[in-house]
Each structure stands twice: as structure tokens, then as C-alpha cells.
Amino acid sequence: MSEWIIPDWPAPQHVRACSTTRYGGVSAAPWDSLNLGGHVGDAEAHVAQNRQRLVEQLALPAMPQWLDQIHGQVVARLPASDPLPRADAAITRESRVVCAVMTADCLPVLFCSKDGSEVAAAHAGWRGLCNGVLEQTLSQFHCSPHDIHAWLGPAIGPQAFEVGPEVRTAFMAHNLQAEEAFRPAGNKYFADIWLLARQRLQAAGVHSISGSTRCTFHERDDFFSYRRDGITGRMATLIWLR
Prior knowledge:
- The protein is an alpha+beta fold.
- The chain has a single domain (4-156, 207-241), classed as CNF1/YfiH-like putative cysteine hydrolases (4-Layer Sandwich), CATH 3.60.140.
- The protein contains 6 helices and 13 strands.
- The protein has helices spanning 44-57, 126-131, 133-139, 165-174, 193-204, 226-229; strands spanning 4-5, 15-20, 75-78, 89-92, 98-103, 107-113, 119-124, 148-152, 162-163, 182-185, 188-191, 208-211, 235-241.
């Protein structure tokens, strides 16, 4: 049986959401075991079986709409005609459509309007986060950012996310407050991606922000981590309207 992370946030009851762990699939090492990524070298049959388990165990209304994620800012509106939209976020107003992003250290962010009429999921690596993927996602909603809930999922934590000075410089070019999210470590820095995301969301007008502080890098038994392992699987973070 798989283990799920259910967001603790003030979303309406008909808004359903979940983040997966690495438990409960059929993939062998180094993708063991609930790998949902079809682009990481795992056997296609294993990925397909894992995805079907996801649908069955969560009683999803449909297979999630997977994205071809490229660390960009494009937001796909679902349902989409393309079976694999090239985007790093997805949004829908329709029930029975499952928005999904895959991660293995990057930050997954879920959104829903406070009235529960619209939901979205975004994949925020540092490049996408810095270049505005969260703001782009918010811009697709039919309501004000003040009327949106956001949830931050498991990601690489501030004790593990080592970056070069160019990353700090890039974030500070958008907002000088970003300096608070970087801790010096020799000639590099440790970055707090959750704080960076909160800063960007708050600046955009979102004030209802909940979230996980679970570190994908350090919690080896529970999560895949690209930074830690290189070749590894992918978790999924999902949201849909029931």
C-alpha cells in the first residue's frame, strides 16, 4: 500500500489534493518503488503500473494530466488537446480533471480559489520560481490572488539546497528581501526554497499559504532526490475538483 501526504490547508471539501512518496510501487532500484516519471530510465511497464496504482488507490476520476516539464513558466489550461503539454504548471475549472506536477527536490505548489471553482499545480525549481512560474499560474485564475489558497509541498530543504552566488543574485534582482532565504556556506549559499516561494506569493497578493517542511534530500526512505542520488524516480503532487 502506498503512503500519501494530504495537504492540511483550508481548501473547500470538494477540492482534493495529494502528494506521493516513494512507497508502494513496483519499480526496482534506483527508482524504487512508486516512480511516476516516464523520463528517468525506469521500465515503461513499471511506470505504467505505478500510475495505474495511483489512480486506483486514490480513486482519481481520471489519469492525471502529465506535463513535459522544462523549468519554465508556461501554464497549461486543462483539459488540453496535447497529451503531454510542454509546461510547468496546470490549471483547470473542470471537475474530473487531475492537475499534476512531478518533482524530486523541486518545489510543488498547489493552488485553489477560496470558493473551490478553480485549482492549479505548479513545478517550481529555482529557475522557474525566480522567473515567475508562480505569478504566471496566479495570473490564470479568474479571481484575485487575495482569494486563493496555496500549499507548498515536500522539497529540498534549507540544510541541503546548496547554490552558487548567481542564484542569490538572480532572486535579489526581483526582491531584496530574498537575501533572508540564503545562508552563506563558504563561497556558496544554502537556499530556503519554501521561504523564497512564500515571499513571491505574498508579494503577488496571496496570504493564505500553508505547507510542508519535509525535506526530500534528507528523508531518504520517503522521497526521491535528484540532488542526492542522480538517477532516481519522481513523486507527483496532484489536485482536482471532485
